[in-house]
Design brief:
The protein contains eight helices and eleven strands. By secondary structure, the protein is α+β, with helices and mostly antiparallel strands. The protein folds into two domains: 198 residues, Alpha-Beta Plaits (2-Layer Sandwich); 27 residues, no CATH class. It is elongated, with a radius of gyration of 25 Å.
């Protein structure tokens, strides 16, 4: 079985803002595109234009309707990918050592040449963040675009994960969560960032920023018709051509 490093001082990961994610799936598409053309085996699709299409994705966005204790229901878009856990069970169950956690930055990766496609890591992951590529027979997962973030041939602005670079609402943030003074760590501290399913004890590096409370109408305004401004007459005494037409029609 694969051993986890005792500790990693650097903890690269994502901070995802559930308040600003609009569920556009731009991160899903950019992730699919980048990881199909670059690191590891391509992300295959099966019968993409048929009756039962399927494929391999490293990042997915789920949408849920949430009913707060007070106020109207809210639609929450929830992106999910590998969380690069500190205590990653997907690593320790791997029988070949294909799954491993890097000491230098804490990123969890799969050495696809050693992967036998047994699926144990997928069973061990409590977040469902691993997918078997049916065409290649190897396990695929988010790499934090390790081939981008260290690529000196790219402009510095592009040395971030593809999903972060693409997000139109700035809901995704990338950085070192092991550094308390980093931008992502300060963002987590200011907004009360949380772990996904902390009861699992995996210590995920990625954090989620909860939605902010929404403005509520005062009780006396609770029955306001939001269409009222559009239904009210523009003018009670029409003038000009419309005024002449109104008077002409009254005489008929």
């Amino acid at each position: 079985m694969t051993q986890l490093p005792p500790r990693t001082d650097k903890k690269l990961g994502l901070v995802i803002d559930l308040d600003t994610c609009v569920g556009c799936h731009a991160c899903v598409i950019s992730c699919k595109g980048w990881n199909t053309e670059n690191y590891g085996a391509p992300l295959s699709d099966q019968d993409p234009y048929g009756a039962a299409p399927s494929g391999t994705f490293l990042n997915r966005v789920h949408s849920y309707e949430v009913q707060p204790d007070h106020g109207a229901a809210q639609l929450i878009h929830f992106p999910k990918s590998c969380l690069h856990c500190e205590d990653a069970p997907c690593v320790t169950v791997c029988p070949t050592g294909a799954s491993y956690k890097r000491v230098e930055d804490g990123i969890v990766l799969v050495n696809e040449s050693d992967c036998i496609g047994c699926g144990l890591c997928a069973w061990a992951c409590p977040y469902g963040a691993r997918e078997m590529d049916q065409a290649e027979g190897v396990m695929k997962k988010c790499t934090l675009c390790v081939d981008r973030i260290y690529n000196e041939n790219l402009p510095e602005v592009d040395r971030i994960p593809s999903c972060v670079r693409t997000c139109p609402s700035n809901a995704r943030h990338f950085g070192d969560l092991g550094d308390p003074d980093s931008d992502v760590s300060r963002l987590v501290a200011e907004r009360g960032g949380v772990d996904l399913m902390p009861e699992q004890g995996t210590k995920p590096v990625n954090k989620y920023l909860p939605p902010r409370p929404k403005d509520q109408l005062a009780q006396e305004d609770a029955q306001i018709d939001v269409l009222a401004p559009f239904l009210a007459p523009v003018a009670s005494d029409p003038k000009g051509f419309l005024g002449w037409l109104d008077k002409a029609l009254e005489k008929l």
